[in-house]
Fold these 2 entries.
Entry 1:
Amino acid sequence: MLNEAINILVLDDEKDLTEAIGLFLRDLPNASVIETERPSEAFAVLEKTEIDIAIVDIRLPEMNGLEVLNTIKEKFPKTEVIMISAHGDMDIVVECMRKGAFDYFSKPFMLKSLQGAVERTRKYVEIKKQLAATEIKLKRIHENLDSRFQVQLSGKSKVISEIQSWINRIASFDNQAVLITGETGTGKEVVAAQIHARSERAMNPFLALNCTAVPEQLFESEMFGYRKGAFSGAETDKPGWFELADKGTLFLDEIGDIPLLMQSKLLRAIEEKKIWKLGASAPIDIDVRIIAATNRPLAEMIKKGTFREDLYYRINLFELKLPSLRERKEDIPMLIDEFIAEFAVNLRKKVTSIDPRVYDVLSNYSFPGNIRQLRNLIERAVIISNSDVLNMTHFGHIATEMPQNEETIQSQFSNNLNLLLNEKNLILKALEKSKGNKSKAAALLGITPQSLLRRIEKLKI
């Protein structure tokens, strides 16, 4: 059954015939027909409108049908051409077929001949569109086979174990909307990607859109797409995010930043499972799972009138609240080890261990940027490291932000009587206080600079 909207151009200098063809074709499902009598008029239409099928007479003013065909194939290759031939035109028809015409029918013609030629061509056009859409989806799937689907929400804390359990349960219901909340850098996109990867939609696209990156004036064209000629500069059809994510998952990050007017358009698309492309004459059915995320207090925004309550309930069938890193400090050492292993490989650095004091200091840091900040810190430390051991000199800027007093300093040594480790920690502390100046550090430690250098080399600091 042919249901896709289709644009048909008829070019024939016999006005009565053109009108008769147009009248017949308008009865076809979702068919839009434009009638022209001269090639110049037809080309003007093709410049402004995405034409799927052009029906072209061979004998025309200004130029013949073969020349029109050549121009269409050169300038508008997506348009398929059906030739209208008269008695004695068969040699030209054969040449037209060689040049790329898809079909033809002869004058005088029966309506069945016209209908057959149009339906054959229409099926081909729709198959081409499906193949083009499939190629785009396959490209997206290929792009998605990256680290997002390999990265897990790491941790052994109770709260992370519960979230991992919820990810598995939510993934089994692959049509329901999910709202992921939490501070910036807590791993909201990682969780969204894992829900998608474990669902029945896993072989279809997972598209992540940061809503703050979409200007309000471009919201509809970006979300829903547009048809050629919908506005100045719309030279070709463009699919929107919903269409590209069809049969897959659309992750809307920072949904709380969408302007109020645009929220109503988003709500309509989610509720009706249809989108209207700008300039389109009919809606498009879409099958997309919505996973939204925000670090903003949507409940408070509803009270202030800056976020729609109906949209909130539509996207909030399941809510996953991700904890900050300071709420699961017991996971920090595991995350440190994972990031060191990752960056040591990626950056080709021989980092094999870490000073125990780094674990203590980082585990007591507030991490306002959460996992993202920790990850960046480890990456920077691996980059600047010149040894196989990471120590506090590689995190100096963090150490200066940590509140320190004598009790805190003493506690770092009181529970560990290992002489070498404590010696190493004292040297590191002296280097921190002297901002890396080895002469000053030696003075603080009551030893000569040469002695300090020997100890640094011995302890691989």
Entry 2:
Amino acid sequence: MQLDAHHISASPAGLNAHALPTGTEFCSGAVNRTGINGLSQCGTLGLTTGTFHVSAVQPISYVIEEVEGLLDPDNKTLLRGVVPDSFPLGLSLNPAQPGERRLVVIDDNVYRIYGAQLRQYFSLNGVEATIVPLPTMEANKSFDLVYEVARRAEIFKLNRRKEPIIAIGGGVCLDVAGLVANLYRRNTPVIKVPTTLMAAIDASIGIKTAVNFDNRKNKLGTYCPPLGVFIDRTFLRTLDQRNISNGAAEMLKMACIKDAQLFYLLEQHAEQLRATSFQDKAASVAMRRSIQGMLEELEPNLWEHILCRLVDYGHTFSPEIEMAALQYGDELLHGEAVNIDMALTTQISYARGLISREEQARVMDIMQRFRLPMWHPVCNPDLLLKGLRDTTKARDGLQRVPLMCGIGEAVFVNDISPAEITSAAAALKSFALQTSHSSSENNNIVAAPAKIAMPV
């Protein structure tokens, strides 16, 4: 903050009314400034006018790292802490020393698989770990979980200057822990360890946190950058095939509207990626391209002040679909709801002539090969229109819907009509019902068949 000499000479009446006694000094640490030094925006003008303007900038900086063998006791990555006196809080290269502490919030399913290994990891490194397994799923993604984690943090007497919360799990777990971190002591550092494909390429790498409220998806939340994100693909080996496909939907999203090379990679390797749980070389390339593409969209728009967002592809109708399915009793995973949204908008793009019949078929072929649903019983036109209205309101009165206009390309539109939605929904429903098949793997959700016969 610089001294504005021009504004120091305020009117005698205004200045003398609050003048300090002669010889009074103000000391703050090593800084000793006498008198009033002014605000950056308006100097000392507020002394005269009574109107004060404040302007400040909060820098954002965090690290996303691929790590192999994160729970190997010889790997110290998970023990990294906070750089002392850093702003913004920085991720230290130095691991916690014996006797230091960590609070770990972990999805209970992940804990059942890795709990013993996790406890051994901290024990062998001499770090006192309080591990909190929680049932983090969409059905209970509410402030009740936030209160529970905050209560554990208070019992732990967390030192936010030195002790980051470590969150290990899928998107719900990371969202809840991130929200707690942002609220507890107004900003506690959090390290995120995604254990699902969805979390690794989407939920963990941005700064948004949220929980559901009043049967509405992610209505209460904040912006909270993590201290760091550690992605270990070996966690995906214990993920079921449905959750592998769930994450692939977000990957397909980026491919459809931004990255033609990623689209071609998914076309060539869909079955292999799914069968190997994203463990091979093609998976590494696909995940890195997904993360790169997502961050290119997020970094210049972390607070979403720009409302035309490519990453909103698949997120116009899906929030309403996902929550309705939850109430219906036939739950959709987030990526599954996103995929139904993409199938719908792909049909709209084709009907508008923005993509060819061949391009539409290629998109839906990848969806089918990843065993992703294209329809759900809750997808009636009234629900879809409500979703569009709610989204339009959230986007400040304009639809701003991204539609494909070629493989890896998109255009924003503001004029999707109820007739278009009704027509697209009817076409997809007819197609799905003609070719539906049931399996425990996709939870009896209507999906596309092996041979694509596209709706007209």
